[in-house]
Specification:
The chain is of the alpha+beta class. The protein has two domains: 79 residues, Proto-chlorophyllide reductase 57 kD subunit B (Helicase, Ruva Protein, domain 3), CATH 1.10.8.550; 221 residues, Alpha-Beta Plaits (2-Layer Sandwich), CATH 3.30.70.3420. The protein contains ten helices and eleven strands. Strands 3, 4, 5, 6, 7, 8, 9, 10 and 11 form a nine-stranded antiparallel beta sheet that branches. A two-stranded parallel ribbon has the order 1-2. A hairpin with an 8-residue loop joins strand 8 and strand 9. The longest helix is centred in the N-terminal third of the chain and has 28 residues.
Length: 315
């Protein structure tokens, strides 16, 4: 006879020790598909402690101890991963700013002093160990952004501290953040079968080697994640093959899952914008393109020194 969902929710697994009614009632709050495993774990805890009757207090102690062990194991595994060279993940931020035109009408002496103050803040953070600050101009190619900072750090708080310092400057008081994307590096989920020697370490980005940078946030449709891993790898094989036809374009993929509104932020570095345009057109024709939910806005950025990027603001 079939058991309906309501009966499953009220089903207590078979026990080998004595349980109080209160302890059993707590087990009914555990999802039924893991309830048997939880009951076995609590009974094993009781046996290890020579406890014959499982009551509410025993359930609480068992849960606390098991959770503590799980946390300790997770922390140990994290330390082991971070101890491996190049395995520590980086936080990445692409921040776009637009200057209030009122700043340009200030006396030139005030503008010059404000620029120096602002530039010093950016250069000071770029000089810190473990932090990279790269400046790009978007003047003339977008109406909603004029300067972009690509920031990379091992500590998320560095972005907050730096932004606070920027906003405290006189120029910063006239600066609006129009877009900001926050992500983290992570090893690719897919293998490059066409170029096995090309094992890009995506946990560690070394950026800024090309004149142009093209950035956009990217989200896959949920149907993509319902495909099997092998099906996704097969579709990505075509995607990767197309990408390998454009060696002049370097892809930096960072991951946003749970950190920001998108799945990824992709940043393409190249000295040849026409190659990037052709690459994107070719990728539109691949099977993987069917699963794209959103891949805009797209930003075309020109790499510059921090000082030169600030100068493009026209001040």
């Amino acid at each position: 006879m079939a058991i309906d969902d309501k009966e499953l929710e009220q089903l207590m697994p078979e026990t080998s020790l004595n349980w109080t009614e209160d302890a059993k009632a707590r087990m009914l709050n555990v999802p039924f598909f893991v309830r048997k495993s939880v009951v076995r774990g609590i009974e094993q805890y009781a046996r290890d402690k020579s406890i014959e009757l499982i009551d509410d207090e025993v359930v609480s102690r068992a849960r606390q101890e098991r959770e503590g062990e799980a946390i300790a194991k997770m922390q140990a595994e994290r330390k082991a991963r971070e101890a491996q060279p190049g395995s520590r993940r980086q936080y990445v931020n692409f921040a776009f700013y637009k200057l209030d035109s009122a700043f340009r009408r200030l006396p030139q002496a005030e503008i010059d002093a404000a620029k120096e103050e602002f530039i010093n803040v950016l250069e000071d953070y770029d000089a810190q160990d473990g932090t990279i600050v790269l400046a790009y101009s978007t003047v003339g190619v977008r109406c909603d952004s004029e300067i972009m900072l690509w920031r990379i750090s091992y500590e998320m708080e560095n972005f907050q501290k730096m932004t606070t310092a920027m906003l405290r400057t006189k120029l910063g008081k006239y600066l609006d953040t129009t877009y900001s994307y926050f992500s983290q590096t992570k090893r690719s989920m897919y293998m490059d079968l066409f170029n096995p020697e090309h094992e890009e370490d995506r946990t560690h980005i070394i950026p800024g080697k090309a004149k142009y940078l093209f950035i956009y946030p990217f989200t896959k449709k949920r149907e993509w994640y319902l495909l099997s891993k092998y099906a996704r790898q097969g579709i990505m094989d075509e995607h990767i093959y197309v990408g390998n036809q454009y060696p002049s374009v370097k892809l930096n993929t960072t991951y946003c899952f749970g950190l920001d509104d998108y799945d990824f932020v992709v940043a393409f570095e190249t000295d040849y914008p026409d190659d990037f345009l052709d690459l994107v057109m070719d990728l539109r024709e691949t099977e993987g393109s069917r699963y794209t939910e959103k891949d805009t806005p797209i930003f075309s950025c020109t790499a510059m020194s921090i000082r030169d990027a600030v100068e493009t603001l026209g001040v």
